[in-house]
Hints:
The protein is of the alpha/beta class. Helix content is 42%, strand content 11%.
Amino acid sequence: MSKKIKVLFDYQAFSMQMHGGVSRLFAELIAKLRNFEDIDTLLYAGINDNTHLKEIGLSKGFISNWRFKYKSKVLNNFLPILNKVITRLRLNKQSFEIFVPTYFDPYFLPFASDKPFILPVFDMIHELFPQYFDPLDKTKANKKLLLLNSTKIVAISQSTKNDILCLYPEINPDKIVVIPLANSLKSLGNTNLKLPEKYVLFVGTRKRYKNWEQFIRACSLLVKSGIDFKIVCVGGGTFSANETIFLEQNECLSITHQMTVTDEDLPYVYKNARVFVFPSLYEGFGIPVLEAMENECPVILYPISSFPEVAGDAGVYPKSSSDEDLATSINEMLANPILRQEHITKGLSQAGKFSWKKHADQWHQLILDLVSNKSKK
Length: 377
């Protein structure tokens, strides 16, 4: 067998998140790349408490056996610094062929100058919606620096690639490879969860561009029309005082339930919902869309950003972005079981186009091409 290609992933995403989309993406990718005989995936995740590494069996051998529960702001700030220092030492040894940063801190540039590095880009939210972020946030500037200096860029959708090129037209389009994501939620989990009989589902954080308030306004129109249904909001934490007031003002407080469920139980929540409403104004990909479709739940979303790529003709697209048209789409899924089943069937077919195996296969080919091109120079 020829020598294995050593691909080094760093600590960033795993220090940032105990669980979440970015760290889950890398955990899935690293686990799948391990199946290729010509790839040796090296991961320094440092001191972390990331659940996805443990779930996919990467907590032994790939990272330090330290599993640290962060209990103070001091430790939260100190541990990433420690992980960065140790990663720099590993980079300095140059015992790898390709480097993959898992977020946008450019700390590694002085140590990877002679090695190709692949920059995964999940979205361009900081660039497109700067009003939602602290003016002192360095993500936008750091990302631009890495985009310009990277050997290759992996965009998780064609929409994200288009956004990168629109914002930074000096980047060669051939430098960007589109590799779509996949769904990790498979198990039905706890089938004894207490759920309403007829409910509309909202999943995730309710802040900023996620557009939760419009969702509630649309539901309010249905409530005022005498339509009987409930609202289930999963994740995002308990309702704040302002959110509670907003729900009350829109006559939705008594019908709205907030739940926190595990990834194992979330598929059951999708499967029993009449419809999942995802009114977000922007996503680099939108994994919840895949989660819903694969778990037989129709999805209402706008034909913007990456959504048409992910949902295809399975998506339920309101005629416009008005509260009234969003309410009409919700009511159609509540009142028309035949139309609802049509979108469920289309959703299952559409979701089948995405898998972590396909994702890893494309990464594998990208890695082989990079090494081959480097050897020709």
